Fold:
Amino acid sequence: MKTAARFLLTFYLLLATSQRLPAPISEEANPTPKPQPKREATPRPKPKPAAIPKPTPNRSFAGNWSGSVITSASDGSENSSANYIIRISDDEKTVWFNWGEVGQDISGAGYQVPCTRFRGALTWSLTLLDRLITDTLLINTNGTGSFASEGRWVSGDNAGITYKHSGILSRQGASSGPSGPQTAMTSTSQTTAAAAPKSVGGLPVASPVPNKPGFVYNPYDPNSKVLLDVRGKAAGTKLKDPFSGKLFITP
Structure:
């Protein structure tokens, strides 16, 4: 009996003093990485082809225009046609023009007035003793010009009557003279115009037009049919050519 008790006591002591072994550690297998979702490649925008510039038509009014127009009046008294000559300066600020019946020479010095451009239209006005005139020129896609002249008689037997001239004009180029009907000149006038102008202080002196007091030939374009109006300007005055912008001296 005592032997069994001693055995049990010894067993319990050994059990109490024995170190507890750590629990076995199980190694985890290497985790299989989850496949990442593939990113779709963002397509790069394709470069746009360079735009080919379209040729820009000449939209300048500068140059010489001429052509025939149809005339009409509010009282029915005018129903015919006329020829026009129009010259516009390079800066589009001055216009010279004249007109006459078809079949007849366009005579006289014509009229030179300032003009105004607004977008695609060029307009100018002329005030005479007996009438008021407003002209408009538009450039068409084919290079021709649509011309309209509206007038109103303000005195005389025709007072109150309005009239209109309208038609298509063609341009001959800024440097060449207008074609078609032209201002009548004598051979003496042409010779005088073609003569080399005198100069004062390095500026040319304009040549006077025979039998037309107050009008001179353009010293920078002496063969031009366009006369310059210098009425009221004293001799020796410096003036600017409205077409070239250069200075000249009055005779």
Summary: The chain is about 10% helix and 35% strand. Residues 174-197 have pLDDT under 50 and may be disordered. Residues 121 and 202 are 38 Å apart (CA to CA). The longest strand covers residues 162-173.
